[in-house]
Every structure is written in C-alpha cells, then in structure tokens.
Design brief:
disordered N terminus; disordered C terminus; two-stranded antiparallel sheet; elongated; single chain; 3-stranded antiparallel sheet; alpha+beta
C-alpha cells in the first residue's frame, strides 16, 4: 500500500518538474535586474535627446525662413522703388525724435546747407557767395565752375583755418568743417564730435563749449580764460541721445541721407 502511494503518475511528475523550472527562471540575480533598469533608462534618455534635437532643428529652420523672407521683402521693395513703383516713406535709420529735419533723399550726406569736399562737410559755396561762385575749388576758395582756369584765378577769402570759406554750415555752428553726417538736435559740434549742448547742461548760464568738459558764458576765448566765466565738469563730456548716442560720438550719416553709399551732389 505504501509503495503504491509513492508511485505517482508520470504526468504529475512532469508538472512538478516544469513548475520547478519556471520558478527558478523568474528569480533573476539583482545585478542583472539593475543592468536591465539602467538600459531602459538610457534608452529613455536617448529618446528624449532625439526629441529635443528635432525641436531645436525645427526652430532654427523657422528662424532661417523668417530671416530669408525679411531679406527677400527688402530686396523686392528696393527693386520696386528703383522701378518707380512706389516711394519709400520710411528712412533707413530708425525714427528718432531728436533727429534734425533733413532732406534724406537729395544724395547729400552732409547737412542741407553743406556740401562734401575732400571727405569733409563745408558750408555751400552758393550760400557763402550769394549764388555767384557755386563750385567749391578748395577749402578756402569757390568759383563759377570747377575748371582748372577758375581754380587758378579764384580769390581766396582767407587762409585762416575755420574762417572765411573754410567753415561748416549754419546748422553745425559755422565751426570747422566736419565728417559727413549730423548731430542730434540737442547736441553741438565741437572739434568734429557731437556733445550735448552746454546751454542744456548748464540751464543757459554757460552756453558756449570750449572743451570736452568745459562750458563758458562768453563766445570770446579770451573771456573764457577767467575762472568765473567758465564751468568745468566731467558731466559735460556726454552725448545728447540715448544708448550709444549718450556717449560723445561722430556725426552720423543716417540722419542726413536715407540711401546708403550716397555722396554729396554739388
């Protein structure tokens, strides 16, 4: 009887063996489980990186298309303008409430009452001579034409620098000739640079600039030698605009001519 109990059917023995194998395969070593977890995390990281890269590439493509479209629109506008289909209503430079009122489409990169000669802006000979000698022949002379004969027989008003015909326009203060361009309305030209006006910096008490950091109450340089006539301050050494134009700067051609590369028309 006991022997019969020990004898199990073959099917039952096989079931026991399969169950034993299955349970042993489910129990993996901890190291192997950790490696599998790390692998899954790495795959997730790679997928996220690929997704971010695709988004960045798409963003660059969008920006590139926008820049290309803007350049194409500007080129098309220039072609239409040259063909006479429309006239540009906006200047090339951004609007600035401190900019002087100038003709930005006359081909003159100097102020309206000036002309370009040897890369400097002088008061127009036509204004200096009442329309008699309209051509500038040198820094100190004007003539009825630009011929060599008129140059040879032209009379020189004076050879004193920054006097006579060797002066800038009225808007630039009739000082020495200067680089092409203009200062802002609240600035004055001194030794070729644009400074905020002394009259504004000193509330009108010392309206005449004599140096980068000195303003004087008199137009006479001799009078300005008296200490009571002048006021010195490092705060006077500033421009009249905002941003980079709050620093002393050269005259700017964007305030005298809209078209880049223009030259003065004589």
């Amino acid at each position: 009887m006991a022997l019969q109990c020990l004898q199990l059917p073959l099917e039952e023995v096989e079931d026991v063996e399969l169950a034993s194998d299955s349970s042993s395969s489910d129990e993996e070593p901890p190291l192997l489980q950790a490696m599998k977890s790390l692998g899954r995390a790495a795959l997730g990281g790679l997928a996220l990186t690929a997704l971010l890269g695709s988004a960045a590439f798409a963003g660059r493509q969008l920006v590139g298309k926008q820049e290309t479209q803007a350049a194409f629109d500007e080129a098309s506008q220039l072609m239409e303008e040259k063909a006479g289909l429309f006239k540009r209503s906006q200047p090339w430079h951004p609007k600035n409430p401190l900019a002087r009122t100038e003709n930005l489409n006359d081909g003159n990169i100097c102020l309206d009452d000036e002309e370009l000669f040897e890369n400097l802006c002088y008061k127009k000979c036509a204004l200096l001579t009442g329309g008699v000698d309209i051509f500038r022949l040198s820094a100190f002379s004007c003539g009825p034409s630009s011929s060599v004969g008129d140059l040879l027989k032209s009379e020189v008003n004076t050879f004193e620098p920054c006097h006579g015909y060797d002066v800038a326009g009225d808007q630039a203060g009739n000082g020495c000739p200067h680089k092409p361009g203009a200062c802002l309305n609240d600035e004055e030209l001194h030794l070729g640079k644009c400074y905020k006006k002394c009259s504004l910096l000193t509330s009108g008490e010392y309206p005449h600039r004599t140096s980068a950091e000195t303003c004087c109450s008199s137009e006479s340089l001799m009078q300005c030698l008296w200490p009571t006539r002048s006021k010195f301050s490092s705060m006077f050494n500033v421009g009249g605009g905002s941003g980079v134009e709050s620093i002393v700067h050269d005259p700017e051609t964007k305030y005298t001519e809209a078209q880049p590369g223009a030259r003065a028309v004589v």
